[in-house]
Amino acid sequence: MAGLALATGCSAEDDSGSPKSKAASSGASSSKAAPTGTSADSREHLRVGGTTRAYLLHKPTAPASGPRPLVVAFHGRGADPAEMRELSGLNKAAKARGMLVAYPEALRKAWGAGTAPNRKRPDPEADVRFAEALVAELVRTRQADPRRVYVVGFSNGGSMALRVAAERPRLVAGAVSVAGQLPTGRAEVRPTGPVPVMIVYGGKDPVRPVTGLARPGPAPKGEEPITATMSARASAQAFATAGRTKDPAEQARKGYDHTVWRPGAGKVPVELLVVRDAGHTWPGTTVTPPKGFGPASKSLDTTGTVLGFLKDQAPRPAANTADTADTAEASKSPERSDR
């Protein structure tokens, strides 16, 4: 897959940067299934709009004293939830913070991060509805806190996280994209409200450069078209504009350049971290990236940085609980049954 991505000038959507896993494929609706390599993880299913969708759910083993923060983590194109779990190391870091982590699975291993339909994806809104239904289900059944819902993603999954934040700002309390940018052109995504956002990007990304990919090459045969994206900085600026932040302040740190759009009164921050020696990777990961994806920098503990940023954000207003309940009602408590 990596070879195809580079040979055709494909985007960051083309691979996860993780080795392949052996997670089971989705099938009939089920709320519980066999463990997936981690005792606290289960593979679950949700029926959304007539389609069965799958996800891995990580639950901290310690009992909760109240609703838990929820992180929804989107894998990269060509990958799966188990690979995202391994690449990011989110389970261990989230456990220490008492967070639930849901790893949704894309159909055909790619997310509809852009707004333009195509032959492979005639309904470009389906994945946004899946994200909404998943949050509503976990609020209803797993004590997820609707005021502390966060979206995170890598590559194509990072672009998907940004789309959810852009189009559903009342759903999430924060969003982080690693190696993913906002779609532009026909598939353009525009932020519609203030959301705290962090973008982590590799300064040496050879797959989808930090400067963006305005004219992507053709997709491998049989796959969806490659989505054009704006630069990492323009992606951050779009959220800063929607959040009416102050002018950015830039600081060179050891191993990375840090740009912060500080919030005005009652607003939210936006941050961009460009890791100078990182490729199309999750900086700090223990997973070796595929050939041609550039180095996996150790200059930043991305996982700790991401969760620290999200935990620092204020919970959404209490009215968001009603919004989530409305989402759950609209999805009619997607069909589930235990195996």
UniProtKB/TrEMBL annotation:
**Keywords, alphabetical:** Signal
Please give the SUPFAM superfamilies that the UniProt record associates with this protein. Answer: alpha/beta-Hydrolases
- The segment annotated Disordered runs over 1-53, 309-339
InterPro entries named in the record: AB_hydrolase_fold (IPR029058), Dienelactn_hydro (IPR002925), Plant_Biomass_Hydrol_Est (IPR050955)
Q: Does the keyword Repeat apply?
A: no
Compositional bias (Low complexity) at which positions? 18-40, 315-330
Name of protein: Dienelactone hydrolase domain-containing protein
Q: Which organism is it from?
A: Streptomyces lasiicapitis
